[in-house]
């Protein structure tokens, strides 16, 4: 079936005819000659027809393609083409059309949907009661994942595409990911992770009244060097606690994780004992960056630079004994002025020193929780504009969409994997082949 703009014919692919003769994904250049497109564009400009916007060439072409596809579906449904002699005395036949406006990712487009006499035709390209093409839904989900509120998305669609979409519609669109989110949250995990980073961020969620609630995040490094957000869990308003981490880690174990070489955390009290209950062989390492941040909280700003220089030999020591000697020197200089700093490092010592026994490549990647902190920064950006969430599910939906949008191009994943290759070899030697066992 051919439609014409100016004197240029555009041929549409008819479902049920060309679909059986062409691959599933076809390059547009195979259908349209470049000269045809150029001529069409020139003629539109010469006639004063804009390329985009209301009444523009792009909208007209979209209308033509949609209507041609619908006519093709009707041909397949009836078994003959429009005005074809084969359709005479066949019983059912065409019965005009009805106008319908659908929202597309270039704005609203009015199309004529064909009808048949016995009302048995069920269109697929623009289904009954369908008011949006899938591209609009994808756009709404993408904008939500990047932190825009429902009101901001409504304004964006109206300003850029001239499309009116209500906040309720946006909520309905994003709710479609809930089933996918549930599957993601309960999916089976790898049997072995060389490293798992854990942390929590705080969101305002209404639970009777609005309160700060921790959302627990676990990031695993796979045996191939990839990164895997293992899940999201909303805690209670009492704050981050080791007791809830026991529930989170137990769920991770029940999803198939039988072994974790190291778990890196921010120094939460009681967490090492919880980890030992779930994975007895796991080494718990406190994030050195968190420890340094807490150190500076006890000192005046004018002493920060000197304290940083004096404490560095402790966490960069070649062995635990060397670290103890360096810490003794640090304490002799600063304990009298800042006794809380000495107590802080003494209390954190059992979880601070494990990485000193490992290869320098392991030290580089486990001395900090930056890997998960960067993810948390993206999550916070997605939720900051929202004030508070009405339910736990609403909060998790927003965070899940943000996680889906973390690395759409895949380039970040490649960089991450390359950075971990050397460290994973060191892990395999240090932990007696447990990483290799996870690859089997």
From TrEMBL:
Q: Where is this region: Disordered?
A: 80-102
Q: Which PROSITE patterns match?
A: TRANSPOSASE_MUTATOR
This protein's species is Rhizocola hellebori
Alphabetized InterPro entries for the sequence: Transposase_mutator
The family this protein is said to belong to:
Belongs to the transposase mutator family.
Q: What residue spans carry the Polar residues bias annotation?
A: 90-102
Q: Name one GO biological process term.
A: DNA transposition
What's the name of the protein? Mutator family transposase
Function according to Swiss-Prot or TrEMBL: Required for the transposition of the insertion element.
Please indicate if the UniProt record lists Kinase as a keyword.
no
- One Gene Ontology molecular-function label: DNA binding
Entry keywords, A to Z: DNA recombination, DNA-binding, Transposable element, Transposition
